[in-house]
Design goal:
elongated, 382 residues, Jelly Rolls, mainly beta, 42% strand
Length: 382
């Protein structure tokens, strides 16, 4: 795999040594395990890499004998979610899984399915889509690579993706979802419910302000896929111009909701959601209007960070979640979906941070006459 040679000049720069963020060779450890590099005749030039939960996507081009051959889109999938889904049905995943793919390029959107084969070198399922499997005139593919090529192989050509691969740098985004293969191994029996065992972004959805009606179902859009975005940046000159989604008695059990009343409406501006890579789920700004409450709730399998930017109020955290809260009052709070639990009642103001790990409890209340605002990041734990 080729990398930009000028990066070598900044590897030892003090700024990079301190932070290791200006230049981090995220694929250099992996170069020899791209599919065609089992033969020394092939070389990859990877343009960009994106990750999303268990997924890694590379786009670039491949060379044969020093001659540029074609563009490449590579997908890797580590399948931790799908492993659990299969195990719930007393099965293990086999040597391959099926992916549904929607590729968006300059010529529009194309959809296809593909088989991803398990590769022990990377401990993941993977496939490479090549723009063509035809060698340049006067050359032949290496015999060490030929057995990978073709339908269902680890190097495949999908005609539906030709438009997107033709100008690989303009390939904008990819939507992908996964399921088990159709046959069990080694018995080769048909897996009758394989189509039901999907990994589609943990059944996540996105929040969209389609209506101002609080807690309207029309504001919840089912995605049913992972979106891998090749856009390189997002800029919001004023995120307050993002229309909020409104929620009545958010994360409250019935008794707590009845006590809060119909006027207990909070607002969330969903600034970034599927745009994130890695395990991040969203970044949003929350407005707690005067005399309103966000219900106290527990996180399982996720972590969330609140940073208060405006107003003052009180937050509720699990009684033993942080050792720095012993001086604050101990109170019982109704925890969404769980019931009463002991919590610490802590004051918050601009600059206050609440970081809640998996298993932790938090909620926030505004007893004052001016809005309380905070920004929040949430991500899945590994």
């Amino acid at each position: 795999m080729a990398m930009e040679s000028r990066f070598s000049d900044i590897v030892s720069d003090p700024s990079n040594l301190i932070f290791h963020v200006v230049f981090f060779p995220d694929r250099v450890y992996h170069a020899q395990y791209l599919n065609a590099t089992r033969s020394a005749r092939y070389r990859y030039n990877v343009h960009e890499v994106r990750s999303k939960a268990d997924i890694t996507v590379l786009k670039g081009c491949v060379y044969l004998d020093g001659v540029r051959l074609c563009n490449v889109l590579r997908i890797e999938y580590r399948a931790s979610r799908l492993v659990e889904t299969a195990r719930q049905r007393n099965r293990f995943l086999g040597s391959s899984v099926v992916a549904g793919l929607e590729v968006e390029g300059p010529e529009g959107t194309a959809t296809a399915s593909a088989r991803l084969n398990y590769c022990p070198w990377i401990d993941a399922y993977q496939v490479e889509f090549w723009e063509t499997l035809q060698p340049p005139p006067g050359r032949r593919h290496d015999w060490q690579v030929l057995d990978l090529m073709g339908f269902g192989g680890s190097i495949a050509h999908e005609p539906a993706f030709d438009g997107a691969l033709r100008d690989i740098r303009e390939l904008r985004r990819l939507r992908v979802w996964f399921r088990e293969g159709r046959f069990s191994e080694p018995t080769n029996y048909v897996v009758s419910d394989a189509a039901a065992t999907w990994d589609n972004f943990y059944e996540r959805n996105t929040q969209v302000p389609n209506t101002s009606e609080p807690s309207s179902a029309s504001n919840t859009v089912k995605e049913a896929n992972y979106r891998v975005d090749f856009q390189r940046g997002w800029f919001f000159q004023n995120a307050r111009e993002v229309e909020p989604v409104r929620y009545r008695n958010a994360m409250m059990n019935d008794a707590a909701a009845a006590a809060a009343g119909a006027g207990n409406v909070i607002e969330m501006r969903w600034v970034l959601q599927q745009e994130f890579g890695g395990s991040l789920v969203f970044f949003h700004e929350v407005t707690i209007p005067p005399r309103t409450v966000e219900g106290t709730h527990q996180h399982i399998g996720s972590e969330e960070l609140y940073y208060v930017t405006e107003g003052e109020g009180v937050a509720y955290m699990g009684a033993n979640d942080s050792p720095d809260m012993a001086q604050f009052d101990l109170v019982d709070r109704d925890i969404f979906g769980i019931g009463p639990r002991a919590c610490r009642k802590v004051p918050v103001r601009p600059g206050s941070v609440i970081f809640t790990k998996s298993g932790g409890i938090h909620g926030i209340e505004n007893p004052h006459d001016v809005p309380l605002r905070f920004v929040a990041f949430l991500h899945h734990t590994s």
